[in-house]
Amino acid sequence: MKQLNILTFAALMAAPATSLRADEGQWLPMLIDKNIAQMQQMGCRLEADDIYSLNHTSLKDAVVIFGGGCTGEMVSDSGLLLTNYHCGYDAIQYLSTVEHDYLTDGFWATGRADELPVPGLTVTFLISVRDVTDSVTMGLTPDMPERQAAQVRRRNIELIERRAVGSSHYTATVKPFFNRNQYLLFVNEVFTDVRLVGAPPSRIGKFGGDTDNWVWPRQTGDFSMFRVYAGADNRPAPYSAANRPYRPRKHLTISTRGVHEGDFTMVMGYPGTTNEYAPSHNVAMTTRDINPRMIELRTAKLDVMNRHQKQDPAIRIKYDAKNASTSNAWKKWQGENTGLAHFDAIGKKQAYEARLTQWIEADSARRARYGSILPAYAQIYPRYAQLHLADRYYGEMCYRGGIETMEVAAMVRPLIETTLDGRKPTRQHIDSVAAELELFYKDYDAALDREMSARVLECYLGGTPAQCRPATLTPDSAQAVALRITAGICADRARMMAALARWNRRTARRLAADPAMLLLDTLTAAARRHIDEYRQLADTLRTLDRLYMKAQMDFEPDRHFYPDANFTMRVAYGTVCGYTGCDGTRHDYFTTLDQIMEKNRTGNPDFDIPERLAELHRTRDYGSYAEDGQIRTCFVANNHTTGGNSGSPVLNADGHLVGLNFDRAWDGIMSDTMFDPAICRNITLDIRYLLFVVDRYAGAGYLLREMTFAR
Length: 711
Ligand code: ARG
Ligand code: ASP
Fold this sequence. Notes:
Elements: H1 6-13, H2 36-41, H3 48-51, E1 63-66, E2 70-74, E3 80-83, H4 85-95, H5 102-105, E4 107-108, E5 116-117, E6 123-131, H6 133-136, H7 146-165, E7 171-177, E8 182-191, E9 193-199, H8 202-205, H9 209-212, E10 224-230, E11 244-245, E12 253-254, E13 264-269, H10 280-311, H11 313-318, H12 320-342, H13 345-361, H14 364-370, H15 373-398, H16 405-420, H17 427-442, H18 446-463, H19 478-486, H20 493-501, H21 505-512, H22 515-529, H23 531-555, E14 570-575, E15 579-580, E16 586-587, E17 590-592, H24 593-599, H25 611-619, E18 632-637, E19 649-651, E20 657-664, E21 682-686, H26 687-697, E22 708-709
Helix pairs in contact: 10-12, 10-13, 10-15, 10-18, 15-22, 15-23, 16-17, 16-21, 16-22, 17-20, 18-19, 19-22
Bound molecules: arginine and aspartic acid (ASP).
């Protein structure tokens, strides 16, 4: 049965393969037949239906969503899964205790019975994809206001998803493509019994830490291993000791031949978000108005965290994950801004817009359809940028740990509201809040938060347009406010837990007057003041974006467009190649264990490998994993990837697994906005380093026996 109605897509995407630009693009696997000729020219030996087929198994059946934001792949007929170390990190940390510190020591299950279930972890397989644009847009009229149109679409989508699931155990989701010019329905199968099988010590899995994050050359052993379990019928089942390893439709074959300069590679996975077709105004907003402010705010956060973490080992552990996630985007924004400035992304977009405008103006029908888009952008963005900035500040302060007590306040708020409304919250509700708060306080330090809150408030009050911030707060009140909120109940585990234990109207009233609660109310009130205007502008922008996408496709009928990433399965392809950085440094395409030894113990704790690895290096006990007497650790290629692609299989010309994608190189991080194959590089863990660590370092070679190797 052919499920994909290719016609709608084909109409938009019809183009001779020759007009493709090599290397750029995150392509839909079910339409990869449009790219396959070019891929084959670049060395690929696969046919389109080896990659995606509805009639027989194909590579797509081995590629999964790991958890909520990463990619993974099947590597055995018994549900063995590979993903990145940083993707499995939360699970490994959750399973670790003082007696069993898997972060420090690593973990290797010696048999199925030793594999550790991870509550809440899911693995999602793609079953099918279908174009449902006509059904989603049914009932829409051209001049329908956006609010109303959104309602119609939402109702249609609910119906489509419900029908797609039917009485099956599948899940279904409809996602917009090309800025909502198209809609696709994805039917998935979600497994909920997933167990940890193996992970190296963090000194291998996180080697280089935040120092080397977003940087090439890189030698991180960024992998972990899990297994998917299923019920007796091989279908998803909640955890049970009786469950069996899942038998996937397809698992990848591994190649230990390595890759070399110029080799074809392809990445299959789940890129999260890109913004390739946005107007120059959007890039200007991000790089001038948003990124600098957000970088400033996170610099302040990191400064405080780093200082406290250095002084106290307990705080170092508590804030390890918070520091890493704060630092990841902080560093990314800086790379993005540097790259977009270096490549004059705004100038390039403006030049494109000038050409587009000329084309629009040359024809009255085009003028009627598209003539108002760019002027409207120019008019809306300055105001939208202000409101968007205020919103971003709000998010950083209240949801992303800028002012940590705001999270506590937000968790307790519903309890207070229920109680003061005269209803009694259930014990269950109170207990669930208490359980969440215990997790929060486990990794909380009030002294650190006091200092961080003050700095963050200063940034916010100094950086937000005056009319968007609370009139009662001024930058010089930041210190005093921070002092007050961190002296309150929200910052004090013991007092908060006592309050929850004997919850009544009085406690609710007392907590409603807690300084942290009052601050949350103040910040929220300020954010709400312009919420209607902000939403309206966002709606208008979305409508413009859809039209603008259409205009670009009309303007360049021969160009093969790929849709922006939206966390659906994509294929990126390119070649293995070194590059010359913006500073003129030439970078080779691979790194080695020798380089790990050079970086080891140079004073920076991010570079400190376990003695056993140093010993393997000393004795050159490399087995068959070496090439030219060296263990190669990572390599780069110009596959177009983004966040979400972490853990993605990197495949060679035969579709064999040669590595795990995990990062991008500094000079090309702007690829979410503008991709340049000359400088944009995805960083891949060489599968041979992974196998070497499992086999030689960990002595867990038995895990390799269930894998399939290319001859
Ligand atoms: N930069 C990579 C990504 O965006 C890796 C992050 C994890 N590594 C780290 N050192 N924080 O996810
Ligand atoms: N490190 C990213 C991830 O976790 C990948 C990237 O942004 O290139 O998905």
